[in-house]
Amino acid sequence: MINLPKDDHSCGWYQALPPAAPVTRLKGVQKADYAVLGAGFAGLAAARRLAEHHPQARIVLVDAQRAAEGASGRNSGFVIDLPHKFALEHPDPAHKQKLLGLNRSAIAQLDSLVQRHGIDCQWSAVGKYQGAVGERGEAFLDHFEHLMKDLGEPYRKVDHSELSAVLGTSYYRRAIYTPGGYLMQPAALVRGMADHLPDNVELLEQSPIRSLQRENGHWCLRGDDGEIQAPKVLLGTSIFTREFGYLKNRLLPVMTFASWTRPLTDAELARYGGKLNWGLTPADHAGTTLRMTADRRILIRNSYKHVPQYGGSTNDGMRQRIQADHRQAFLARYPDLAEVPFTHTWGGVYAISRNFTNFFGQLEDGVYASACDNGVGAAWGTISGTLLADLAVGADSAQLHDIQQVTGIPSLNPPEPFLGLGVRSRIALAKWQSRSEL
């Protein structure tokens, strides 16, 4: 029994897009040279790279939903060049430099695609802020500054006055600004890339794959109304990789939630008083992420849930409670905008591992996967999908060696019910500890 994506239909990023083009679904028997499962950042990058290597090959890219409906279209709109907070603490400087190089290669690739195809996705090289609300956040911020010095990366301290002028709120004490990150509208970026795939890539959407089996020397991906037969399969399925029997008991499904407002009116924007198009992540990782989009929407993201059945683990009541928490965070920052409503509250599921290790490589003969982005999927998905295609076709490169050196096997999880109890307890503890930063 395959547990399929079951995302809610209230993602603001996706709902803000114009209507999608007519869908093409999987029907009948489709034979391909390569099958790519999952049309998120990893799957799109893998399919595009395969087409570059073999422009005469038939490549089929298949997804259970529409492109941009899943996790890749549901993040907070950051493409971050710096390694994740936990990776920044790795004792080997060379390890961190490899991660930095891989992330920046992904950003360059995305930038090239946006410019070449004119993808309208609010793509902007504006960097990001990491902010502290109180003493706990400031302690994390001091630690982050120490890590940045060790890494030799540029950063700038932002005091309370300057930060307040940018954010339109005096809620934060100070921040550190790093220049290498980009902001974007994730659903628009994903759809734009899906709309501009190479000619020899066929995208099949709303076509859930319910089994993956080896038959007569090829792999068979069976759906409700058809199947794909291919000698090689690339899985850009993140947490759903375990549904096909791989990395079982090694990936943790976690969902994080966001809410945003409608676009501010001119009068509300004047009252807000800050700038447009910036993003702030919390120095305390369990704190609140804050965005002001280029089209005048304020986005609040916090609240984490363990979701063993993915979207099936959530419901309207849960989202209403989470929206109420987001409302408190919003009003604490912008009390003068109390009349501005939230229009959407949504969740997105991603995979983490207990040892914060990403998986990249060959699972068995003809099956390759990139799984477990540990919450930094836009850049990592793009570069890991690209290099997974290189691995599948036997194309060697220095970057392929780099990604193989910085990835590994996610550690085993304890069995249920202990796993669920432990994860829920850790999330609850982190929320309590970080309450001053929310």
Can you describe this structure?
This protein is α/β, with parallel strands linked by helices and 438 residues long. It is built from 12 helices and 20 strands. The chain has helices spanning 12-15, 41-53, 85-88, 93-117, 135-151, 160-167, 186-195, 266-272, 316-333, 377-393, 398-406, 418-433; strands at residues 28-31, 34-37, 59-62, 78-79, 128-132, 156-158, 174-178, 182-183, 201-204, 209-215, 218-223, 226-230, 232-235, 252-261, 278-282, 289-292, 298-306, 342-352, 359-364, 367-371. The strands form 4 sheets. An 8-stranded mixed β-sheet has the order 6-7-5-15-16-17-14-18. Strand 2 (34-37), helix 2 (41-53) and strand 3 form a beta-alpha-beta unit. The two termini are 39 Å apart. The relative contact order is 0.20.
